Amino acid sequence: MKKVVITGLGVITPIGNNLEEYWESLKKGKSGVTKISKFDTSDFPSQIAGEVKGFKPEDFIEKRDLRRMDPYTQYAVAASRMAIEDSGIDLSKEDTTRIGVIIGSGIGGMVTLEEQHKILLTKGPRRLSPLFVPMMISDIATGYVSMIFKLKGPNYAVTSACATSSHAIGDAYMLIKRGSADVMVAGGSEAAITPVSLGGFASMKALSLRNNEPEKASRPFDAKRDGFVIGEGSGIVILESEEHALKRNARIYGELAGIGFTADAYHLTAPAPGGEGAVRGIKACLEDAKMKPEDIDYINAHGTSTEWNDKIETTAIKTVFGEYAYKIPISSTKSMTGHLLGAAGGIELVASILCMKNSIIHPTINYEYKDDECDLDYTPNVARKKEIKALISNTFGFGGHNACLLVRKYDEKW
To answer: Is 411 exposed, middle or buried (0-12, 13-18, 19+ CB in 10 A)?
Structure first.
């Protein structure tokens, strides 16, 4: 079985549209949550989101292609282009039948769906765009990335709600590990800040109502958290077999050494009691990497800022790590970006890798009031210097989908 390493990173996020901007915002604890500007939210109970700002798709995509792409696809293509460039790989010298793409989306082309539905109701079915379906479906970002970069290896999408990106990255890991590909472009993308999405999540009473203080609305593990904040963007990583990366003298960020995929089999939206599914996911991740709980130096939490997720995730971490749980720094990227749904695991794995690279743990911002049931070290409000040799990134999705990824510093001796 081959060793899998990470050689490229790319992001489009509410706090930065490239790695440098993203990392600076993470270190400073900058919130990207604001009042929604995309549409009138007067009639909505929640009126805030982590919108992507200042994104210029024409910097990444040919203008003739833009009108054929939903925003979620635009974000995916842009982040993929950044990740490929960051990896330094020269695709003209590669066997592209050995390079694949797995980019997932929790929802897909929601902007396109709503626009076309409005046309159906107001102008009739004959006025629907012939591009409607291919723009909307959640696999089309993967298709576009493969076509733009002529990548002919394994190619498909993953959809598992908030665990989507991590499942996509984990699938890519397995394909390389068993020798089915040499290089994979993997992650997730989402652009679901739309009236129907916002209204749907609000009707579930899942969203924060802190409309007057948007930048303080996403507050994972804080006692006064009142729901998550929807976000958008894309996070992509380049995975390679160790052999392939060394052969081209690639810069290696780290080794993706373990994955843990489980199901709660419990409830549509609520986590299993005691975080039973998450516990098994974290344990499976450690077992896959052949590491012990005390080998982990940092956890990037799912940390959604909802009452039950934060409480249950805390319990799951304590179940796996015991007393050592109190010594592990934890942080939630969502405190700054909001919850990117299917793209969350992608941008959060990138954040985790940047923390490891720079020996700095980014903070969980807006942590002001202690919750007795959330009593671990969440790196409150201020970044902290710490060497990270191994880390875990958690993502848990509606439907009981759990995906945990373990990354460690690259060492040929492992």
So the answer is: exposed
**What's the rounded Cα separation, in Å, for the pair 168 and 160?**
9
pTM over 0.85: yes
Q: Which are the contacts of 67, defined by CB distance < 8 A and separation ≥ 6?
A: none
Specify whether the CB–CB gap between 374 and 221 falls below 8 A: yes
- 352: CB partners within 8 A, 6+ apart: 298, 300, 391, 393, 407
Q: What is the DSSP string of 222-260?
A: BTT---B-BB-EEEEEEEEEHHHHHHTT----EEEEEEE
Q: What's the rounded Cα separation, in Å, for the pair 252 and 67?
A: 36
HSE-CB of 225 using CA atoms within 13 angstroms? 31
Tens digits of residue pLDDT in 217-273: 999 999 999 999 999 999 999 999 999 999 999 999 999 999 999 999 999 888 888
Point out the residues that are catalytic: 162, 302, 339
Residues paired with 237 in a beta bridge: 9, 186
Angle between helices 71-87 and 140-149 (to 10 degrees): 40
